[in-house]
Amino acid sequence: MALAMTRLGTGFRINSARDDAAGLQIATRLSSELHGMAAARANIQKSTSMLQTADGALDVSGKILIRMKDLAIQAADGTTSDHDRAALQAEYTALTRELSHISIATTFGGTKLLLGDSTEERAAAANAAQAAGAAAANASAAQGAAQGQYDNALANHQGAPTALTLAALTAANDALIQTTAAATVAGEAATESQNYATAVAAATAVDGAFSAPLDFQIGDSDEEVMTVRLTPELTAMHSALHAAASTYDTFGIVRNGAGTDLVIASTATTAIGNLQTAIDAVAAVRSSIGAAGNRLDHAANNLATSQVNASAARGRIMDADFAQESANMISQQMLMQSGTAVLRQAGSISSMLMSLLR
């Protein structure tokens, strides 16, 4: 009866190892798994929140890029004046700075999420500076060639002016104006790019959470690890953003330049294609984040099912059967009461016999 009362009092069938040694071992392992699965579910919730934070920031970045593309399309139109392009460039630069702010300031628990590998970023900045320098040299050469053609056309027209020589002179003058503007813009871009590359080389390195493969512990064993790899997508995204916006930054460097993306029609036309590439790159990162988030959702559902089943299995081993134990206790009580009554009756008979003998 004492065993039944102990089981009813604690609610457990196994209260010590001697009650069921094998069952206790199995139940202990199940308890360990249940605690591990509970911790893993908490991990999944935090991991999901991290991915949602990154996705939300990239959603805003995508909307900004769409607006920037609208500005580039307006600037590329022939009816847009230089004054209008300056206004469009001002908004474009402001939006670029917000893109930079989102990339730098998006954090989760103090960890930056959208920054890539700083080593690759430095290399990209150096390569961009070289490319900008080469573009400036080509633009300067084109300007020199246009200047030569203009000088020849001017000499021909002054020597024997005709309608044909005037048309040639006008065309040469238009070409010279365009190449001069392009050379000026390319030179400014090269200077800005070189200054930025120099500043980046001296800046403090900060790598983002996804600059390397990131492991999420999604189960109670060391084998249940989910690895999220966003490094290639983030690298491609930052490269596309640098190409689409001349003042984009991921190192927290103040770039005082106004930008040269929309100041002339030709650069605005180039920006349209670069912006579409950037939009696609941001969408690619979001797609990878979404895929990882979906997997985490399924992992959480699987853990919940496993927890229910493991808890039920542990209960079948550890929990007392109240009906059975109650029946056992009542049976023991009845036997005890019956025995006591028999003993009491036996004592009464003895007393009666002693009375008769007297």
Automatic annotation (TrEMBL):
Q: Does the keyword Membrane apply?
A: no
Q: Where is the signal peptide?
A: none
The record, for Pfam families, names: Flagellin_C, Flagellin_N
Cite the Flagellin C-terminal domain residue spans from the record: 273-357
What is the annotated localization of this protein? Answer: Secreted; Bacterial flagellum
Q: What is its main location?
A: secreted
The organism's place on the tree of life at top rank: Bacteria
List, for all copies, the residue spans of the domain called Flagellin N-terminal: 3-118
Its GO CC terms are: bacterial-type flagellum; extracellular region
Gene Ontology molecular function? structural molecule activity
Q: Which UniProt keywords apply?
A: Bacterial flagellum, Cell projection, Cilium, Flagellum, Secreted
This chain's function reads:
Flagellin is the subunit protein which polymerizes to form the filaments of bacterial flagella.
Q: Family, per the entry?
A: Belongs to the bacterial flagellin family.
What name has this protein been given in UniProt?
Answer: Flagellin
Originating species: Pseudoduganella namucuonensis
Phylogenetic placement of the source organism = Bacteria, Pseudomonadati, Pseudomonadota, Betaproteobacteria, Burkholderiales
